[in-house]
């Protein structure tokens, strides 16, 4: 049986080492170890690896570590993450790590992986708890395709990029992967009133609590993404010009994003002016905490299927309803491709539904 002793890392975090020990027919002792972030992942790897070792012993084959059997897809993933000169992003890195640690395809030699193996991996993804969306499966496949397109020309690893292209085509045709449906969810004023009251009461009860009512209002009126809001620095804010420099704004043509000046519609500057200048960032809070607080509030209040990112769509729709053209919308949202904003040109222009919203005064 494998053992899983905890491992204390230099950064203070704790990992888990999976250690497999076997006595070979020759009487020699065979040991193989590997470290993981999570105990569950370590146990899953050990279970698969023990089965492989036992099969080799039963068949009379020499037991070799996976690293001695040729370069695997897992090795290619490790090399890709290690040597990427561009910041691949937290989500992509986590997806690749999950593939490497939890799926059998990562243990295959690079030169043995064919398109049907990749398709089988995608089908296996749909059995993953919490992953029941072809759009999420497409995310995994897209991130993995980056490894396939890089491995051969950069390191000489024999991954077949054509096999990946064939698998992508088949998975799309069969419906195993697909682009996400365009969300149209907008919060009602009644839902926002309940959220704002909930957040304000929390802040009044404990002044150390993150002012989620202020962040929520700013998200709507600025149309900024959550990560962008939390990155904005005081030094990048120009109140006289009613604009702010958004660092590393998402851009389809730039993996690391592009620094972009965007307009701040009213009452964004008034909201910013309420924030204390104690730190470099205007909203010096943790992104995960903002997500959790918003999700928990919606659940507590019985508000269904509302995401924090929907506030960006709401804010953009509001500006379109006020009569802004696509170029004028782009000046606020930061979209480089106006085509992404075309759907807002069909929004019925009905004025500003937030004109008499009571919460504007509360956050300014």
Automatic annotation (TrEMBL):
Origin, by domain of life?
Bacteria
List keywords of the entry alphabetically: DNA integration, DNA recombination, DNA-binding
**Pfam family membership, one:** Phage_integrase
Asked if the Swiss-Prot or TrEMBL record annotates the protein with the keyword DNA-binding, the reply is: yes
Where are the annotated segments for Disordered? Answer: 1-27
Coiled-coil portions: none
The record ties this protein, via Gene3D superfamilies, to: 1.10.150.130, Intergrase catalytic core
Gene Ontology MF, one: DNA binding
The keyword DNA-binding belongs to this UniProt entry's keyword annotation: yes
UniProt-listed InterPro entries: DNA_brk_join_enz, Integrase-like_cat_sf, Integrase_catalytic, Integrase_recombinase_N, Tyrosine_recombinase_XerCD
GO BP annotations listed = DNA integration; DNA recombination
Q: Please state every residue range assigned to the domain named Tyr recombinase.
A: 182-358
Homology family: Belongs to the 'phage' integrase family.
Q: What is this protein called?
A: Site-specific integrase
